[in-house]
C-alpha cells in the first residue's frame, strides 16, 4: 500500500495517496515510512489547496502597491506567505514592498533634510538633496516647491551680496 501511495504521489494524486496511507496506518500504526509520507502528502494537499488563495493575496498586494498603499500591500504579502511560506510570487512581492517602503522613507528623509537646510540658509545643499528626490520621484510636488524656495533664497542672497559689494566699492 505504501509503495502504491508513493506512485500516486509521483502522479500528484494526493487525495488517493492519503487514503491509501491512512489504510496502511490502520493495518500497521507504527509504520514510519507511511507516517512520514502521510505528513508530506498532507502538506502538499494543504499547499495545493491554499495556492489559489495565496495567489489572490499576491494580486491584491500588487494592486495596493500600485496605489501606494504600502502597509496594506505588506499585509497581503504576509498573508500569502502564511498560507505558503515557499510561494515565490509572495516572497517577491514582499521584497518589492520592502524596497518601495525604504525608497519612500529615503525620499521623505531627503525632503526633511532639504527643508532643514533651507531654514538654515544653505540653499545650495538643499538643492543637491532635492535633485536626488526629483531623480527618484520626478513628479514630487513638495520637492518642486522646496526647490523653488531654495532658488529664491539663493537668488536673494546673491542679490544682497552684490548690493554689499557695490556699497563697499562706493566707499
Main attributes?
171 residues, single chain
Q: What's a concise summary of this model?
A:
With 171 residues, the chain is mainly α. The protein has helices spanning 2-10, 14-27, 32-66, 70-83, 88-119, 123-136, 141-170.
Percent helix: over 70%
Tally of contiguous helical segments: 7
Please summarize the sheet with the most strands. none
Into which percentage range does the β-strand content fall?
A: under 5%
Query: Given the C-alpha coordinates, what overall shape results?
Result: rod-shaped
Radius of gyration: 31 Å
| Topology as a string of helices (H) and strands (E) | HHHHHHH
Number of strands: 0
Q: How far apart lie the N and C ends?
A: 109 Å
Overall pLDDT confidence: 91
Structural class: mainly alpha
> Which stretches are low in confidence, meaning pLDDT under 50 for 5 or more residues running?
none
Structure description:
The chain has 171 residues and is mostly helical. It has helices at 2-10, 14-27, 32-66, 70-83, 88-119, 123-136, 141-170. The longest helix is centred in the N-terminal third of the chain and has 35 residues, at 32-66. 23% of the residues are buried.
Blueprint (SSEs and pairs):
Layout: H1 2-10, H2 14-27, H3 32-66, H4 70-83, H5 88-119, H6 123-136, H7 141-170
